[in-house]
Design brief:
Strand content: 15-25%
Shape: globular
Distance between the termini: 21 Å
Number of helices: 5
Structural class: alpha+beta
Strand order of the largest sheet: 5-6-7-8
Largest sheet: 4 strands, antiparallel
Order of helices and strands: HEEHEEHHEEEEH
Radius of gyration: 16 Å
């Protein structure tokens, strides 16, 4: 790991909006639109697509995956910790070659992913691989120690496999 720390953008918090969740949600969505619709992040030369459907409340599926949690698309719950970090995914994607960040590929079932992990902040971005494109799939805080350990073990195995080729 590089000693050069990767500084993340400032959080955006609910108290900044007087505790008004609806105003906060719209502010978070505006930042998402700026980063993922107007600009589109670039991962190592590849511009990212967006999972638009299903649209929920006029907002793209990728937005909900980055700002809420839950297995079922229809019943995901807003996650304030994810929402506070809405500026982080695009920054990590655009700066994925920064020496501090851990970047690797994995498979979950038949799905191939690229993972970008900020270890100190315990924040993970997952990009889903298509045939010739990437889609920001989700991003979240890694809150369980064993989950972090599994990710780091997977990262080390990936790096070791690349060294052997």
């Amino acid at each position: 790991m590089s000693e050069e720390y990767y500084e993340l953008p400032e959080l955006i918090t609910l108290p900044e909006y007087g505790g008004n969740f609806d105003a906060y949600l719209e502010a978070v969505y505006e930042l998402f639109k700026k980063d993922f619709i107007e600009k589109r992040p670039v991962f190592r030369g590849t511009r990212l697509g967006l999972k638009k459907h299903p649209l929920e409340s006029g907002k793209e599926a990728t937005f909900w995956h980055i700002t809420s949690e839950g297995e079922d698309e229809a019943t995901r719950n807003p996650d304030l910790r994810r929402m506070e970090r809405i500026r982080w995914p695009a920054a990590l994607i655009n700066d994925s070659e920064h020496p501090y960040l851990k970047v690797w590929e994995n498979k979950r079932g038949n799905k191939a992913n690229v993972l970008i992990f900020h270890e100190r902040e315990k924040y993970l971005v997952v990009l889903r691989k298509g045939s010739d494109y990437l889609i920001p799939w989700t991003a979240y805080l890694v809150t369980y120690r064993n989950q972090k350990e599994r990710l780091l073990k997977e990262y080390k195995a990936y790096i070791k496999s690349k060294e052997l080729t």
